[in-house]
Amino acid sequence: MPAEASAILESDSDNPRHIAIIMDGNGRWAQKRFMPRAVGHQAGVKAVRKIVEYCAKHKIEVLTLFAFSSENWRRPEAEVSLLMALFMATLQREINKLDRNNIRLRFIGDRTAFSDKLQQKMAEGEAKTQDNTALTVVVAANYGGHWDMCQAFQKVMEKMSAGELINQKISEELINQHLSTAGLPEPDLFIRTGGEQRVSNFMLWQLAYTELYFTKTLWPDFDQNSLDEAINSFKNRQRRFGHTSEQVLNKSVTL
Ligand code: IPE
Ligand code: IPE
Ligand code: MG
């Protein structure tokens, strides 16, 4: 194997398994160019495509993208409608392409708030790609970390009152199994573009031990080199999960 190829394989082996991104800064990207915010959102979709390609190529297992938060309904009606239309158009255009590339699509969030047509398209995208085995792209739409925990507790409660889960204690595992992200590994790397240093109600439970990376780069400008930088920053960190640095260095513990 040529040296270059083996170096790529080696460096990919300590890649994060799951990258979760708050794609922020579309509006400011457009405003800087004296263009309407809609143009920024369209440019944001193009950035998504490149990042999905990168993750597929580098064998990342899961990429979660925060597309619309449970708080984003507070935006002006015209912007919300534009975002919904863009969401629909993107799904119509991309589902087959994702499927051809063996990419699995999954949505998290309260989808009951979306139009029937959009809900149908989401279900179609999930069904069509459910057996794909390369990258899983999770789109967080009308998602909130508080919502996720509430719906998990609600499901547990309903099962308990139906006589299932008898004598079960509330454990971390039980909660994990009922979150919208059930079955997915926890995010290793969290990225927020656009310069804000906050979590904005994204995956609150799941981010417990995730490495956080903030960049001023606005989402439409975030490209494959930017993702490389974020992943390199991740690779240079020592994850300790409560252990001491020495324990990790001596490999006397499993992380
Ligand atoms: C993120 O970009 C996209 C969504 C929330 C849908 P913004 O629209 O929040 O962009 P800024 O933060 O206003 O620049
Ligand atoms: C978070 O971005 C949600 C998404 C990127 C979808 P916002 O731009 O809505 O976050 P806040 O309101 O500034 O915290
Ligand atoms: Mg924003």
Structural features, described:
The two termini are 31 Å apart. Helix 2 packs across helix 3 (37-57), helix 3 (37-57) runs parallel beside helix 4 and helix 4 runs parallel beside helix 5 (116-129). Strands 3-4-2-1-5-6 form a six-stranded parallel β-sheet, with helices on both faces. The radius of gyration is 19 Å and the shape is globular. The chain has a single domain (18-146, 185-249), classed as Decaprenyl diphosphate synthase-like (Undecaprenyl pyrophosphate synthetase, 3-Layer(aba) Sandwich). It has helices at 3-13, 26-32, 37-57, 77-100, 116-129, 145-161, 172-178, 224-235, 245-249; strands at residues 18-22, 62-69, 104-108, 136-143, 189-192, 211-214. Mean pLDDT is 95; it is low at 1-10. It contains nine helices and six strands, in the order αβααβαβαβααββαα. The chain is α/β, with parallel strands linked by helices and 255 residues long. The chain binds 3-methylbut-3-enyl trihydrogen diphosphate (2 copies) and magnesium ion.
What structural keywords apply?
single chain, 255 residues, alpha/beta, Undecaprenyl pyrophosphate synthetase, 6-stranded parallel beta sheet, 6 strands, 46% helix, 13% strand, binds 3-methylbut-3-enyl trihydrogen diphosphate, binds magnesium ion
What count of structural domains? 1
Total strand count, please?
6
- Count helical runs: 9
Mean pLDDT: 95
- Quickly name the level 1 CATH class: Alpha Beta
Gross morphology is globular
Heterogens: 3-methylbut-3-enyl trihydrogen diphosphate, magnesium ion
Secondary-structure element pattern, one letter each: HEHHEHEHEHHEEHH
Strand fraction equals: 5-15%
Q: Regarding quaternary structure, how should these chains be classified?
A: single chain
Instruction: Provide the structure class.
Output: alpha/beta
